[in-house]
Amino acid sequence: MISVDEYGPEEVIELYDKDFNVRSFVVIDNTALGPGKGGIRLIGNVTVEEVARLARAMTFKNALAEIPYGGAKAGIAADPGPNKPYIIRNFARMLKGVIPTRYIPGPDMNTNEYDMAIIADELGPDAVSSKPLAMGGIPHELGVTGYGVVVATEIAAEYKKIKLKGATVAIEGFGNVGTSTMQFLAEKGAKVVAVSDSKGMVYNKDGLDLEELLKVKSEKGSVRYAKGKAMDNSLLFEQDVDILIPAARGDSINEANYKKVKAQIIVEGANIPMSESIEKEFFKKGVIVVPDIIANAGGVISSWAELVHKSEKEVFGIIENKIGKNTRLILEKSKKENKPPREVAVEIARERIKSMEKVRGIKLPNQNKG
Ligand code: NAD
């Protein structure tokens, strides 16, 4: 069941691709600030409930990033394979008229710049973001999301009086966000000691090497074959590290494992890697959790920058400013008001949405008076 409240969702679209027997969903959560913006997740068992939760996170994330977009998300219930390009093309064709007026897609798990190129080919270059550089795009493959995650991590580390140089880190997921986060952390001198993917995990107390991990992953299909101790990926969360960065699917930190987490800082590279109630438990224990709606906004900020024709060079500076400013704002407010960082972030997002609803006359103050 999708939860519904005064913010949305405004529209839930269910599609069926009969060529490939594939169902997909688009949830347009709230468009007060502009067309709904959010990525396409392509995973066999994706559900409409998962997509709706992700769409709501996008509503708040885009409001906090102060970009003129509402929140939306799409899920295609298929696993990556040779038919992916055709499935993406059919998905785009079925959404003609919705994209880009009410929904502007981008990449998410298992979709990338080449999938975005197919959508642009069907619906035009302004219909989609994160297109390849050759099409005038700014692909997320440049590492924009990981860059923002590291900006947020560095600020959170200050609050815990931890120096990023030499700090130990565990990263869950070795895709777009996981690899780019590792790259920018390495540039800051942090020591990534544990990395996982869907097939397993590798641990090395002396630190893992990004180039070696990329090579092993491309040759053998998993990071678990790199130099270090191979373990089950579920053990990533309990490693004795300063910083934990989930960068895979939702709810990976859950009732079964959250008590085993030893990290003092958790930066949510992934969307919704844990429930709000678990975030509250971490807050009570003094663990800083930088929520997804702040930490991983680099991707959507870059998407906006691409669609307003900023250059690839400008994008990293914009991400640093926006995520840096917001991380400080919410960590400061959280400390002052003794509330979890997500709670204060959502309060700010809600205020921005409500004031725009008033400006646009979407919900007049006396609308509900009888
Ligand atoms: P991706 O498909 O590029 O990579 C996902 C990675 O997660 C893969 O390495 C996969 O092996 C791994 N994984 C899957 N199941 C796992 C498990 N059980 N244990 C450990 N690893 C597992 O996806 P991505 O684009 O990097 O997205 C990752 C997360 O970041 C998602 O939650 C996504 O919504 C969020 N996010 C992505 C972007 C972006 O720019 N791509 C932006 C904001 C948020």
Give me the secondary-structure topology:
Layout: E1 11-17, E2 22-30, E3 36-42, H1 48-64, E4 70-76, H2 84-94, E5 103-107, H3 113-123, H4 144-159, E6 168-172, H5 176-187, E7 191-197, E8 200-203, H6 210-220, E9 229-231, E10 243-246, E11 265-267, H7 276-284, E12 288-290, H8 292-295, H9 298-307, H10 312-337, H11 341-359
Parallel strand pairs: 3-4, 3-5, 6-7, 6-10, 10-11, 11-12
Antiparallel strand pairs: 1-2, 2-4, 7-8, 8-9
Helix pairs in contact: 1-11, 2-3, 4-5, 4-9, 4-10, 9-10, 10-11
This protein binds nicotinamide-adenine-dinucleotide.
Task: Offer a few descriptive terms.
alpha/beta, binds nicotinamide-adenine-dinucleotide, globular, 17% strand, five-stranded mixed sheet
**Strand order of the biggest β-sheet:** 9-8-7-6-10-11-12
| Main structural class | alpha/beta
Would you list the SSEs in sequence order as H and E?
Answer: EEEHEHEHHEHEEHEEEHEHHHH
| Stretches with pLDDT under 50, minimum 5 residues | none
Mean pLDDT: 95
Number of DSSP E strands:
12
Ligands, deduplicated: nicotinamide-adenine-dinucleotide
Helix tally equals 11
Radius of gyration: 20 Å
Q: What percent of residues adopt helix (DSSP H or I)?
A: 25-40%
Measured distance between first and last alpha carbons:
30 Å
